[in-house]
Amino acid sequence: MLATALTPHLFPFHKTNKLRHHHHHHCRYRRGNDQTFRINVVKSSSSVQEIKKAPPVSSDSSDERKELLTSWESIGLPPVKAAKRVVLVRHGQSTWNAEGRIQGSSDFSVLTSKGESQAETSRQMLLDDSFDVCFSSPLIRSKRTAEIIWDSRSEEIITDSNLREIDLYSFQGLLKNEGKARYGAAYRQWQVDAPNFNIDGHYPVRELWVRARRCWTKILTHKSRSILVVAHNAVNQALVATAMGLGTEYFRILLQSNCGVSVLDFNPKPEGGSPDICLNRLNQTPGSPVSAGSSGGRKTSMRIILVSHGFPQNDAEGTDPFSGDRPLNMLGIIQAQKTAELLLDVKLNTIVSSSAIASVETANAISRVQEAADCLGADCVPRYVEMKQIPDFDVENILKQTKQDFTRSLPLQSGWLKGYEDEITTALWDQSGVAWKSLLEKLSKVSGTENVAVAVGHPALHIAMMGHCLNLTKDWLGSFHLDAGSFSVVDFPDGSTGRGVIRCINYTAHLGRWSIPITRSTLDDEDF
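Structure tokens predicted for 2-carboxy-D-arabinitol-1-phosphatase (528 residues):
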């Protein structure tokens, strides 16, 4: 069934006068156990009123002290009786985002007009989606975003203090250049080694991971099956990572942009225990994810855009609905054209693909639009875009060996790669590792100010290559999901030999009505 989801980057930002102004004389909030937590905001230069630094954390904050001694991995995820889908949204741009000020868990900023517009675009993107309940951080910027997205739904928004942003203590309220000037080595460690960053006797990232893992207990034990959670950058990163079993070393690796949408699926295991988890999509943003921007606060020098080819024509004898050895069907042609149009935000010189027909046709569609983009005048000369085919991208022959018939279960459920036999996933993993290394080598040779490589291939190939990028193993193949016609973006702030930062996974907003809906009705018992 075709989706009715809207296309965020095509929507103009709507002007709104709904911006709320809040005045706070103190900065204390109630936890669920009625204990308070304090937020430190230091005196700072700029338009914000000067706020005295809060006193040191006293004995009434024993829970935070215990978090230093607790391993997040020791906190198990509760079992689920039925499939659940959790949609995470980061708040829209705030006044302190715009100023470049360190917010942490302080509550002195509100949404800017741009932030309200972003929230409105997200509301429209999720308008036709089915949610049973909404959890929100109690901080103003997040709660206002939740109110805009939740709109006229009758259910009350549930606020949870554990969904507040990361506690950054004495850093909070500082402009970034002030943090660098005042704290020197500590600020540098926050930038380059955040998991081991210590301030005021606290390890903020480690505390956040413990708190995020505990959040999942409340979210997953709620009776609802389709859940919206509106929170913040760092805490949403921690929610994604802790759900999937990834440690603090993944902080700033799984990006969360303003009003970016991420989706996690939780399915019960037959034997009980912690559920199977799949990241269905990451950071689907109101604006284009391929336009210029930073990665985790750092300017990116190189980028890989992984484009999954569109839907191919049916094969009566085939078992792989994504098999690229057939031409694109009409839907696949539309998906390829939509992707080509979005990639006009990037000036490409080279496109690499597998030799499969569907991948080559998708790559050709991108190339034609790119070459024509600079040739709108009468006297212009079309720009040439080089096309290359990489043999290691060809994984169709590996996937054909399965005895499973995936064409009978369309649309494919999250984590569909789990359904393949072990020998097939092993072969896929090994070949994708070679393909990933080859792609990184080609990226390192790309010249020009915009070092961007576009790679077109089978969704299974791209899932496996992202696994290699994240230094995972083949056992994680079922933990990610890609749809036909989607794309994913990996940035390399330190160059192709540095660590990859995932900007988005399974981005489909550009497909508009031709995309897969983010949620489905929860009236039946089908898995998401």
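Confidence is low (pLDDT under 50) at residues 1-60, 520-528.
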